[in-house]
Amino acid sequence: MKRNAIAFAALGLISGLAAAQSSVTLYGVVDVAVERVKGATSLTRVTSGQQQGSRWGLRGTEDLGGGLKAMFLLENGFNADVGTMGQGGRLFGRQGYVGLGAGWGAVRLGRQYTPMDDIAGIIGTKTYDVLSVVPIIGNGDYNRVDNALTYVSPTVANTVFQLQYSLGEERVSTNTSKDFAKQVSAHALYANGPLTAGISLMQVTDADGVLAGKQGRDAVLLAGAYDFGSFKLSAYYDAEDKAAKKLKVYGLAAAFKFGETTVSVGAAQAKDVNGSAAAASDDAKLYTLQVNHNLSKRTALYGNLTAVSNDTAAALGFNSPVAGSNSNGIQVGLRHRF
Fold this sequence. Notes:
Number of helices: 3
Oligomer: single chain
């Protein structure tokens, strides 16, 4: 009997050690809102993923010994309002990568967010946020990239550095746009107490994919936020190639916290939205009002209002906005994390 007890205890210890060496976590978000949008026409609709994209995912790590660990992440996006998959029907369209990490940092291979999207996250990348309404490259076509190799540094002087290279669509060498979607990007992200700040650079070798040759685009994004406790101030600046001129976006936002409720207001200017060299103005002004109330650590009610004032040739906003006309959207939603 004593021998059996010892054997069972040993088995339990081994099982516990094995469990400690590896882990897999299931997580997700379900987010649905009712909104009224005005663009070419006015429309009331139910829509998914407005504060956070609705998703479910698996992430895990395995201890390989000597400080080395393996990691993976598989993340599926879905439309909770209609029950379909997001990201064009991809199974793991949000992310899907595997990697190795140690004291020297981590290397990841697969579909991933770009370093510029991480910096945009300092300000916010929700549907009603400025850097989503204005089609900046780092939070638009290249917020995630396929066939990517990414290095993430350890924290050095409160700063994390990230370098990424994407092989794009991996077209054959005889294709006239063989470099389509290839990109290299990097960021430096500083976080120390109440201050968070970052800069990201991105160079896309060919952003067109149809015209022969390389139609490259360069972009830079700076963002920062300082949290005073009950008050948080954020600022940002983006500049990137856009036809004959550079698209520029800059703005300020302030968030006020009242217990479990946060109220945010912001204003931004977008210049040369189309990058046109023509005389017609393609600038726009954007204003945001956002409210978030935490019902618990996992569940929140939220409301967003974004208004866009377009100049003659600008067409930013919601529901197929019309150049030279104002556009706006207002929504109330519920977000639950699990």
